Every structure is written in structure tokens, then in C-alpha cells.
Amino acid sequence: MTDPRHPRRSLWLVAQDFIHVLFGLFATPEIIAARGAYLRKDWALLARWLRAGEALMRQLLAVEAAALPKPSMLVAPRPKRARLRRVMHFAADAPETWRVSFRCVVGPRAVGAWRGVRRVGPRPDGRFRNAWPLAERAEALLRVFNDPAPYAARLARRLHARPDCARAMLWHAPDLPPLVGAAGFAKAHDAALAAVAAFNTG
């Protein structure tokens, strides 16, 4: 099957290189989860690298979303279902079973604010922070990279309905591009800015 990303392969190679560096420095999601907790300074460092990857991935998803045909905005009503509360258990060594999400449409206030799922276990003291939220973000980043099509399709529907969100989602803190590589990040950002113009054409 032809990868739909092929016409934009150079942009995705930027993401591929970043993910290799990210996991080389901090390990894979399951290893991050297995640690249980990080010293606060180490947690903050990994969180900063994840923010860089998430900003890059939002840019690439914007490019992919703009390349899709305009979706139908008619949505069939869904039947209401009773919500059942369930206790979810996740194994650190099985990231494919984790329930993770990737936030595409965010703004300056939302970037970096992430609520992790509370896990059962000993509560670390004030010097440490829970590793699970970081592991989940790393896993979400990897899933988007491996299969961006469904994320791009959902984003396209959102941005056609709310084109005012398009430029806001490309906001990023100025200290993030060097982590990706300034040239690669700028290339992706410029492509995303050009792409989101498609959502303002009506």
C-alpha cells in the first residue's frame, strides 16, 4: 500500500529523526512507564522534549489534513448509551493496550498542560513526579507518527468546521524548535502555515 505521506516524505523524515533521538535519550513509552516516577527536574526535561514533538506532530497533521478532500459536515446522530464506570488497569509492558489521546487543536494556554491518569501504587514524595502521564504522551506521539491518517481525518473535519482554530493550533513555545532541529522545525512550520490557509477558503 502506498503511504499517503509520500509526497511530504521530507517533512515526516524530520519527525522520524526526532522520535529516534527522543527514545534514544529517554527510552520507549513502556520503559518510561515502568520507572514509575521521575525526579522533578528529569520529569520537566522529558516533558519539554515531548512538547517539542507534539508541536511538530501538530504541524505535520495540519499538512496532512489540508491534503484531504473536504469532508461532509453532515453527521448522523449517535444513539445515546448509558455510561458505565469501569476501573481501567494498564500494564507498563503493554503500551498497545493503553488508552491514550493526542490533542491536535490547542492554544498557548493548553500547550504543556496535561492531566495524566492516576495510577494505583505508592505515592511518590515531593521530589518525584508520576511517570505515567509522560509515558502516555510518548505512546500517543508514536501512534500518530505510525498511523497519522485517522488523526488527520478528524483534524480536517474539525478545522473545516472551525477554521479559526487552524493557526492557533500551530502555536509553540520559542524554546522548542532547537530540540527538533531549527531548520527541520521551521520547514514543517512553514508548510503547516501554508496548509492551514486551505481551511479559510470557505
Could you walk me through the main structural features you see in this protein, from its secondary elements to its overall organization?
- There is one protein chain.
- With 202 residues, the protein is mainly α.
- It contains eight helices and two strands; from the N terminus they run ααβαβααααα.
- The chain has helices at 9-26, 29-35, 40-66, 132-146, 149-161, 165-168, 177-180, 182-196; strands at 37-39, 128-130.
- α2 packs antiparallel against α4 and α3 (40-66) packs across α5.
- The longest helix has 27 residues, at 40-66.
- The chain starts with 8 loop residues before the first helix and ends in a 6-residue tail after the last helix.
Topology:
Blueprint: H1 9-26, H2 29-35, E1 37-39, H3 40-66, E2 128-130, H4 132-146, H5 149-161, H6 165-168, H7 177-180, H8 182-196
Antiparallel strand pairs: 1-2
Number of strands: 2
Helix-strand sequence? HHEHEHHHHH
The main β sheet shows up as: 2 strands, antiparallel
Strand content: under 5%
| Multimerization status | single chain
Task: Report strand order across the widest sheet.
Answer: 1-2
Question: What is the SS-derived class?
Answer: mainly alpha
Mean pLDDT: 81
Cα shape: globular
Radius of gyration from the alpha-carbon trace, in angstroms: 18 Å
Percent in helix: 40-55%
Query: Distance N terminus to C terminus?
Result: 32 Å
Summary keywords:
globular; two-stranded antiparallel sheet; 8 helices
Summed up:
With 202 residues, the protein is mainly α. It is 51% helix and 3% strand.
